[in-house]
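Question (not urgent): is this output format expected?
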Amino acid sequence: RVDGLELAEGLHRDRLTQLEKENSKLHGTIFYLQSQSMRNNLIFCNIKKGSNEKPAYTKDIVRNLLIEKLDLARDVVDEMKLERVHRLGPFSQNPNYDRKIVYKCNLFADRELVRKRKFKLDKSTYYIHEQFPPEIVAKRRRLVPKLRDAKKEGKSAWISYDTLYVDGKPLKDE
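Got this back:
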């Protein structure tokens, strides 16, 4: 009887190990799909919501910002094909709370055109950043102090996706 229980326990352990591997693989697949679905997205922050702003007008608000603040030509902005533009998060009764805007381009080239001109917003209250899954956002936050330290040392440094590059070389995780 004890031998039978030990055998059953071994089978259950093997099955548990197999399920853990499958779970890890599925998590990786979901994470990859989530990353891919966000790759053409930009997040616009600190854009005041109009008093009567309807979701259909959010696209026009962003297009006007691209023209007025990023100095993009109106015809270029009008030709950009956008899959979706909408505010993030729940509605708030707080008049000082401006929900971020997700800007999803059909073409990566359009997204990059906008992203590369975000420096034009440096002296304004607006800012733009890429959208990433929560795991990547957390990793990037941990890398920011190292990025600042490298820049203080006069090195060329940047973060790409979830990797910090210093003088053109990826910094190893610690």
